[in-house]
Amino acid sequence: MDLIVEMRFGSHLYGTETAESDLDLKGVYLPEARDILLQRVKATVISSRAKGAGEKNTAADIDREIYSLQRYLQLLTDGQTVALDMLFAPEAAMTVEPSFLWREIQDKRDRLISRRATAFVQYCRQQANKYGIKGSRVAAARRALGLLTNAQVRLGRAAKLEAIATDLIDLAATTEHIRLIDVPVSCDRALRHLEVCDRKISFTATLKTASEIAQRLVDEYGQRSLQAERNEGVDWKALSHAVRVGREALELFRAGHITFPLPYASHIQAIKRGAIPYTIVASEIEQLLEDVEAAAAASSLPEMPDMTIVEDLVTRAYARKVGESKE
Fold first, then answer.
1. Residue numbers of the chain with a pLDDT score lower than 70
2. pTM
3. What residues does each domain of the chain span?
4. Is domain 2-116+302-325 classified as CATH 2.60.40?
């Protein structure tokens, strides 16, 4: 395989590895000329040890994921966290000497990354909704449930959500974490949804269905509060990832780069071990979400990546590969 770059990833990049950590490798490759011409380039090549059902990786395991040049640049310009982490990986993380093409990508990174790095913001929002216990989210879920329950009494369980559109507009205008959004369903049509704490409910859903969804939200938040008090039933690894991604996003939007190993690696390790109370970590995630959204809005990064650079990089690299095969 014609590797453009390959690096140690995951905990070995972040500086959070332990003696039990397996090794993750990420890389970018240049496809063979024949595959380019026949349009059968594999976007991703994955290799790992075959494991039995439920079997976990050990420290001896190596998982390898290599992207084609075109796929990697697509992930990068889409603002995906994996591609951004790879872009800022230091020399110490490399398993082979990076090619001149990787150096060129790094040199042009200021025009390849942008405020379009919404994957960071979206991930932070999802984790805040999933793990946070902020009172305003609980209140939003309860207000939505109350309105829907009352509507069922007036209109019946089979009535559609759209029947109370005016009430929902008022609710969204006065309640944090509740909004109305239009989700495209075709090139010329969109369907209105009620969104409560990132949970979407179509206006074509019945009041019964919408109420059940709102009730589950209320129950989930209630259970989460109990877990927080007891510090039990917590996915500490997922919490550590949420904090890591939030902090990476802040540095990217504020400084235009991400530092590896992470300067706060010991903090991430402590969260992963469950050494910090759940309520403190949940509050940190909530605050990170607010800080990241503010930093994204104020960032000096360009609004959009320069796609002409992407096209030029891929075209030149692939043309050179094909030309070499004819010599």
1. 49-59, 117-118, 128-135, 224-233, 327
2. 0.74
3. 2-116+302-325, 119-130+233-298, 136-230
4. no
